[in-house]
Amino acid sequence: MEIEDVRKGTKFLINAIPYRIEDTEFVKPGKGQALYKLKLRNLFDNSVLNRTYRSGDKVDDIRTETYKGQYLYKEGDQFVIMDNSSFEQHYVNEEALGDKKFFMKEGDPVTVTMYGERPLEIEIPTFVELKVVKSSLTSRSSTITAQYKPAELETGASVDVPAFINEGDMIKVDTRTGTYVERVNVKK
Predict the structure, then answer these.
(1) Which strands sit side by side in the sheet containing 48-54, from one edge to the other?
(2) 34-55 in b/e burial notation, b at 16+ Cβ within 10 A?
(3) How far is CA 57 from the centre of its chain?
(4) Class of domain 65-123 as given by CATH
(5) Which run of H or of E encompasses 159?
(6) Which of 166, 165, 159, 163 is nearest to 180 (CA)?
(7) Where are the domains of the chain?
(8) pLDDT per residue over 8-41, tens digit each?
(9) For 126-147, what is each residue's pLDDT tens digit?
(10) Which of 35, 38, 106, 134 has most Cβ atoms within 10 angstroms of its Cβ?
């Protein structure tokens, strides 16, 4: 694949290691060839690499497979995910998930991108509903203005929530930013 064809999100190999493009910048100097400055994320260890390519350079294409799965449980520092079609179980290292691990509950649906036998990326739902297990108390006067307080969720994540949220409440959280969206009404 030629460097001109890559976009943000494109995956390719560098020295047999898969990378995903996080950011691209096209630079056309006054003299010489055009340059492509890429910010790349190593899909094995989540490290970031900055590379510059010249117009016309080629990169190694990567063959991945994607499947729908379900997060089953955590075993040590491994998250066990089941393929919904073949029922195979794959182990994903905690580090590979990054901050996503704070928003995953057992039974949640996930989308897994595999490279050979190794899971590369896990996509979780954009919004999840989680229970508040711990939050500080607020005085009546502090609810007059829009104030936020830290709350611990059932998955161990810490999120700033409005003062009216109490322990036991269900809230919706944006998993991309880790922020509170709204309180969820639980039907009884």
Answers:
(1) 48-54, 35-42, 17-27, 11-14, 60-61
(2) ebbebbbbebeeeeeeeeebee
(3) 30
(4) mainly beta
(5) strand 158-162
(6) 159
(7) 3-61, 65-123, 127-184
(8) 988 999 988 999 999 999 988 888 888 999 999 8
(9) 999 999 999 877 655 555 566 8
(10) 38
pLDDT for 146 equals 67
Please report how many Cα atoms fall inside a 13 Å half-sphere around the Cα of residue 62, on the Cβ side: 23
Q: Which are the contacts of 15, defined by CB distance < 8 A and separation ≥ 6?
A: none
- Token readout for 180 is 């509170």
pLDDT given for residue 121 in this prediction: 83
Report the alpha-carbon distance of residue 63 to residue 56 in Å, rounded: 22
Residue with structure tokens 């969820």? Answer: 184
Q: Tell me the pTM.
A: 0.72
